[in-house]
Write a structure and sequence with these properties.
Layout lengths: L9 H10 L24 E7 L7 H14 L3 E7 L2 H14 L6 E5 H9 L20 H5 L2 E2 L2 E2 L2 E6 L2 E5 H6 L9 H15 L2 E4 L8 H6 L5 E2 L4 E2 L4 H15 L11 H10 L3 E6 L4 H4 L11 E4 L13 E7 L6 H11 L2 H11 L12 H4 L2 H11 L14 H12 L5 H15 L5
Parallel strand pairs: 1-2, 1-3, 8-11
Antiparallel strand pairs: 3-13, 4-5, 6-13, 7-11, 7-12, 9-10
Helix pairs in contact: 16-17
Length: 430
């Protein structure tokens, strides 16, 4: 799964809300409160839109589907892999038109409340889709709620870390990962000087800017106070830090397009020593020639800025389309895929972090060193705003990041522009 976000303007969102197939609050479809006498007799055909990387993560989920169909022989699952940077708009278009939407979608945590506000998602309270809700971690669970109702089930959770090549850092004189942004810059420069390899590969993606913003005490919004805070002295300092990493040579000037793939390739091929990335990237990284020996991969918290070390909370949910013609089959599919046992299998095979507390007690999860490293990092991750407009926050920030990297703007002017675009979204905020 690559981390990517698409733009959705507030004008389009309002227009879609008017014509949403499920009603303004997520639909009025009655949810059954009791289990069928024999759930394995449920029949139907459902389509699931998955957004994971098809080569490194897809096989695990396709294997789970085979297990599901063996248990529920009367339910056929059509598996469709949709690139994560296309799924949000593609689902909205299909749901708004009432044609072509999947029964179940893998929804990014920032999309869930937006889809629910437009009436596209089936309410799940009291259904078999939500089994033992108290077992879910509070953070991921909070992303499934909108206006007091549940519209999704947490699938996986994630955050960002500093991922690095131990051998390259050791050759540069670093026996452990840099703990501050100042150390990050120095370590990257040392790697470049002593090994000839780039020290740090940056990914020009708004999500990957957040550790620098949080590290200086900044944020995008103050939701409680209904304030737009993206244009702050703290965030200006964060953008200056990113610009300095590039101008100093600690990080080469990144490509504006395909920078995620470029950074990943550089790390895997030993052409960069460090990147920021999350647990979803590990299965792909281990396919690289530098990490055939998994012990060469280092994972550490993102380096701290002047205020703290802070990485964003991310993740994905299972959500059911309100217009599905096979609601009962969709409930069973979501319930099956989110059991502690299946979450543990996903964690064991591809190191994605479970959203259930009990899954972390599973020996398969406890035996995964990558999950063990990411779990404490996840415990200190910074929550993002779970609001309908949450999915619209990244495109203005991405465009600003691209302009900054391209030398078309300054940190201060970049944030002024982002602030102006946010004010077009949050018209009544200060």
């Amino acid at each position: 799964m690559r981390r990517a976000f698409s733009a959705v303007t507030i004008v389009a969102a309002l227009a879609l809300a008017v014509s949403a197939c499920g009603g303004g609050d997520g639909g009025e479809t009655a949810a059954p409160t009791s289990a069928p006498s024999d759930p394995t007799k449920i029949s139907g055909e459902i389509t699931w839109w998955d957004t994971v990387r098809p080569d490194s993560e897809g096989p695990t989920f396709q294997a789970l589907i085979k297990d599901f169909q063996a248990k529920y022989p009367n339910i056929k699952v059509n598996y469709v892999n949709v690139p994560s940077d296309q799924a949000q708009n593609k689902f909205q278009t299909a749901a708004q038109s009432g044609s072509g939407a999947p029964d179940v979608i893998r929804s990014e945590v920032a999309w869930t409340s937006q889809f629910a506000s437009l009436g596209y998602l089936q309410p799940l309270d009291g259904t078999r889709a939500v089994e033992n809700e108290s077992d879910f971690l509070a953070g991921p669970l909070s992303s499934t709620k909108y206006n007091g109702k549940t519209y999704a089930v947490p699938q996986v959770t994630d955050t960002l870390a500093l991922i690095y090549n131990k051998k390259l850092l050791k050759k540069a004189g670093w026996d452990k990962a840099p703990a501050t942004v100042a150390e990050l810059k120095q370590a990257a420069l040392d790697v470049k000087e002593k090994t000839g390899v780039n020290g740090l590969a940056l990914n020009v993606d708004a999500y990957f800017l957040l550790p620098f913003m949080y590290g200086e005490g900044g944020d995008m919004l103050d939701v409680q106070g209904k304030k737009i805070t993206v244009n702050s002295p703290e965030n200006v300092k964060a953008m200056e830090t990113v610009a300095d990493l590039i101008s100093s040579g600690a990080a080469p000037k990144p490509a504006i397009q395909d920078s995620y793939a470029n950074a990943m390739t550089a790390l895997k091929d030993g052409k960069a020593a460090m990147i920021y990335n999350g647990p979803w990237a590990l299965s792909e990284i281990y396919q690289g020639k530098e990490f055939k020996d998994k012990e060469n991969l280092g994972i550490a918290p993102v380096p701290a800025g002047s205020a703290k070390a802070g990485a964003p909370t991310g993740g994905w949910n299972y959500a059911i389309y309100a217009g599905s013609k096979n609601i009962d089959a969709s409930y069973e599919f979501v319930r099956f895929m989110s059991t502690p046992e299946n979450q543990a299998r996903i964690a064991k095979e591809i190191s994605l972090l479970p959203t259930r507390t009990s899954a972390y007690d599973n020996p398969d999860v406890q035996g995964n060193a990558d999950v063990a490293v990411f779990k404490p990092i996840m415990d200190t991750a910074v929550a993002r705003p779970w609001i309908p407009e949450g999915g619209q926050l990244f495109q203005p920030l991405l465009e600003g990041y691209q302009a900054l990297v391209g030398g078309k703007t300054t940190p201060a002017d970049m944030l002024k522009t982002v602030d102006e675009k946010y004010r077009g979204i949050f018209k009544d905020w200060s």
